[in-house]
């Protein structure tokens, strides 16, 4: 079997400038799904909108039910533990808040929630309070994105909030030199269906060595790394979600072992929700071969300053 050297292994590593993330499907439009895509850092927004990332952590949850999120006294979504919602509003004054144990009275439709003046071009990170306080808890971006790593888009409820707008992202606002994206084939890294340290092939270890060399060259300026595992659609969706997470966790552990700080690395799973190849037919072996591009681990790196060219 041909095993590439370190330089050749780098060829297995597909490197690209950061592109706008695939947006999670609008809430309530994914039949049968409670959660959709894993969180990815949101792009900047134009002056014509204000962007809100409202989320609920898994840790420290006192009540397992939904926290009903209201925008201008209209229901937007029900945030379960580990769920988030990203939405945009016209700049100006809006009421925002989340009610736990809200049924059957739906107090958020009648009560005065927190009145916020939102500035155009700004992104606001708001966390649900677990103590029953309906006011949102503002969080700094760095802290919020550490917590958001473990969240997924809330997808089960349809927004009734008329003032909520789809976010309009403009490419010219994204400083693409601040981001790098690396893609490793799961078939190079792991045996089919495997995810452990011991399951990484020789070719996979050499591909990782090429990645680690790249990261060490940027080490002084790395601000955040997000490792996302992707699977094909073969088999049970929940197990695919777990497999993607296990593979992302393994790569995160290996990067930490190579000296990358654990506080700046997150790991998440997209499962089979972000395919490259959509429809494959034939025998199981033919489907496995056809869906190979979907089986991948993506490493998204945000740099603290622009990359020198």
Polypeptide structure, described:
- With 309 residues, the protein is of the alpha+beta class.
- The chain has two domains: 6-18 and 175-303, 60s Ribosomal Protein L30, Chain: A (2-Layer Sandwich); 35-172, Immunoglobulin-like.
- 20% of the residues lie in helices and 28% in strands.
- It is built from six helices and 15 strands.
- It has helices spanning 6-11, 141-148, 186-189, 202-217, 237-257, 284-290; strands at residues 14-17, 35-38, 50-55, 67-71, 74-79, 83-89, 92-100, 114-118, 123-127, 137-138, 152-154, 179-185, 222-230, 265-271, 296-303.
- A six-stranded mixed β-sheet has the order 2-11-6-3-9-10, with helices on one face. A five-stranded mixed β-sheet has the order 1-12-15-13-14.
- Helix 5 (237-257) links the parallel strand 13 and strand 14.
- The protein is globular, with a radius of gyration of 21 Å.
- It starts with 5 loop residues before the first helix and ends in a 6-residue tail after the last strand.
What is the name of the CATH topology of the largest domain? 60s Ribosomal Protein L30, Chain: A
Q: Given the helix and strand composition, which structural class is it?
A: alpha+beta
Walk across the major sheet and give the strand order: 2-11-6-3-9-10
The strand count comes to 15
Morphology: globular
* Largest beta-sheet details: 6 strands, mixed
Low-confidence stretches: 1-23
Helix count from the secondary structure assignment: 6
How confident overall, as mean pLDDT?
Answer: 80
Q: Which strand-content bin applies to the residues?
A: 25-35%
CATH homology superfamily of the largest domain: OmpA-like domain
Query: Judging by the overall fold, what is the CATH architecture of the largest domain?
Result: 2-Layer Sandwich
Number of domains: 2
Which bin fits the share of residues in helices? Answer: 10-25%
Radius of gyration: 21 Å
């Amino acid at each position: 079997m041909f095993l590439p050297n370190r330089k050749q292994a780098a060829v297995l590593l597909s490197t690209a400038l950061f592109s706008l993330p695939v947006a999670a499907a609008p809430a309530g439009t994914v039949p049968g799904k409670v959660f959709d895509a894993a969180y990815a850092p949101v792009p900047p927004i134009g002056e014509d909108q204000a962007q809100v990332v409202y989320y609920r952590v898994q840790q420290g949850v006192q009540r397992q039910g939904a926290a009903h999120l209201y925008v201008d006294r209209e229901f937007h979504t029900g945030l379960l533990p580990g769920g988030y919602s990203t939405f945009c509003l016209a700049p100006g004054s809006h009421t925002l808040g989340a009610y736990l144990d809200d049924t059957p009275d739906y107090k958020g439709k009648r009560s005065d929630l927190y009145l916020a003046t939102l500035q155009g071009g700004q992104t606001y990170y708001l966390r649900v309070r677990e103590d029953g306080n309906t006011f949102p808890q503002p969080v700094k971006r760095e802290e919020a994105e550490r917590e958001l790593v473990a969240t997924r888009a809330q997808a089960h409820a349809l927004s009734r909030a008329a003032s909520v707008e789809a976010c309009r992202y403009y490419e010219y606002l994204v400083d693409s030199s601040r981001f790098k994206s690396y893609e490793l084939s799961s078939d190079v890294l792991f045996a089919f269906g495997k995810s452990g340290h011991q399951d990484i092939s020789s070719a996979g270890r050499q591909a990782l060595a090429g990645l680690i060399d790249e990261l060490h060259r940027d080490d002084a300026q790395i601000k955040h790394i997000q490792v996302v595992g992707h699977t094909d659609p073969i088999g049970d969706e929940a197990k695919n979600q777990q497999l993607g997470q296990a593979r992302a966790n393994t790569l995160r552990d290996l990067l930490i072992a190579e000296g990358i700080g654990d506080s700046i690395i997150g790991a998440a799973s997209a499962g089979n929700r972000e395919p490259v190849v959509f429809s494959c037919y034939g025998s199981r072996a033919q489907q496995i071969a056809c869906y190979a591009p979907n089986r991948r681990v993506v490493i998204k790196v945000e740099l603290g300053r622009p990359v020198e060219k």
